[in-house]
Amino acid sequence: MLPDLDARVAGQNLAAEVLRNPGAVTRDLTDFLRSRGYLRATVRPAPPLFENGAAVLPIAVDPGPQFVLATIAFEGRRNIADEDVARTIDFTSGSPYNPAAIDAARARIVALYRSRGFSSAAVTANAAIRDTEPRVDLTFEIAEGLRQTIGDVVVAGSGGVDPDVVTRALRLAVGSTLDPAELLRARQRVFDTGLFRRVDVTTETMNRISEADPAQPDAHTSDWARTLANLATRLGHVGRLEDALQKAEQAERIWRGLTEKQPDAYMSDWATSLANLAAHLGHVGRFEDALQKAEQAERIRRGLAEKQPDAYTADWATSLANLAANLSAVGRFEDALRKAEQAERIRRALAEKQPDAYTAAWATSLANLADAQLSAGQFAIARDFAKKAISKIRPLAERYRLVYNPWLGFAHRIAAESYFRMEGLDNAVAEAMRSAEIWTEIATLRQNFESIQVAKAFRALIKCQLKLNQSEDAFASLGCVFELLRKPLSGNPRPLTKVLSELVDEIAAIDGDAVARVVPSDLLAIVRARS
Prior knowledge:
Elements: H1 3-11, H2 14-17, H3 22-34, E1 42-45, E2 49-51, E3 54-56, E4 59-62, E5 68-75, H4 82-86, H5 99-115, E6 122-129, E7 135-143, H6 163-170, H7 180-191, H8 221-237, H9 241-261, H10 263-283, H11 287-307, H12 309-329, H13 333-353, H14 355-375, H15 379-399, H16 401-421, H17 425-445, H18 451-467, H19 471-484, H20 486-491, H21 494-510, H22 514-518, H23 521-530
Parallel strand pairs: 5-7
Antiparallel strand pairs: 1-4, 2-3, 6-7
Helix pairs in contact: 8-9, 9-10, 10-11, 11-12, 12-13, 12-14, 13-14, 14-15, 14-16, 15-16, 16-17, 16-18, 17-18, 18-19, 18-21, 19-21, 21-23
């Protein structure tokens, strides 16, 4: 047995597992060997042996040849010194071929470029296995994009504080390279002044090329498409959903045209734009159109993952999760469940191999899978997966509140609805209250963010309260959710009217006057007009 393999068997306690689950052991050892360059390794259980009344299951291992890196090259590098790029990789010619290490090196090259102002830099790792020997030629293909520099610094929302005070605290020099890490440090410097409770530092692309960087090429169409996608996201955050959709459609058309000309260079970006477009279509209630775009994005990502699994499998899992959500939105719950299960399996495998990189994505897949299970009527399973998701998302939300608190609120809501369908009302109301608390905090700070999730969280809570004959609490919750959703209801009520009109009808059936007492008349008129 190979020395590393002995350590693997001992470290993972695989000897104790082999009789119970030989398939899992063989998969583990196969993946382990292939991560060390044994690309043709095979691991199979042999027929069991019986010695002195004990069963022994031998495992036959054929590692095959170890593949090593023959050459390492960087193509497309123009603006960063070759030695700086080379220092980001932790292997050399002669090292075992390790896809995970190569993907990590690719990510470090991207981080290097972004720290030097190339915010749209993209890096692809291409490995070519030689026909006659176990050697691999590795090429990192670098698309640098434009170097971004700081063209101006604008201060908004400073209240009575002199903008010059904020500018001095930022310490961002016009003409200097745009470094995302430095932006975070600048934000912290302003926050440390103690003058503000909240500080945001954002960037907007300017319609000119910086004179401080004469080496830059002309503005690229791909950068324009990225700017449109970013603008669509920002428009969505402030409730301008139709405008956001228009920009997302424009970005998708550009990426599609670029892909037709250079498919190898732009296919992945086109898939991303399709996924973004699907999301914006869903935000305005065009669920069938959203599903069509999500299906197209998933097909592209699947094809990319089949050709370059190390580079694109994680993106494919994301497309599967998005597709599951879109299938659920049109009532295709069994199809949605299959896609959600597939996404969770892929992300679980990635998290097992690279926990630091993929555990967070797996946690969100658990929540998505619980939602699909709930919609498919698998209430007990949905409850268990939702609780597992909560246990993994909670520590993430404690560290990165803005990113993962919405996922935590989502998972608590799925747990609440699962308990409710199983008649576990005490647990259901506890989970629903926690979900509503989280979404209240989110909606207060970000009024147009995921408004449908806010409505669904309060729907779960109100249903629990009505079931427990807590009518006055249910009335108060109804009034609260309408006030929280005032801005999105006034701007784009279509995605919200079904959930809110359902709640209004349930309350009205109990107390015909309660709705008029707790729901503002102008918001009630909006819901009634569209229900």
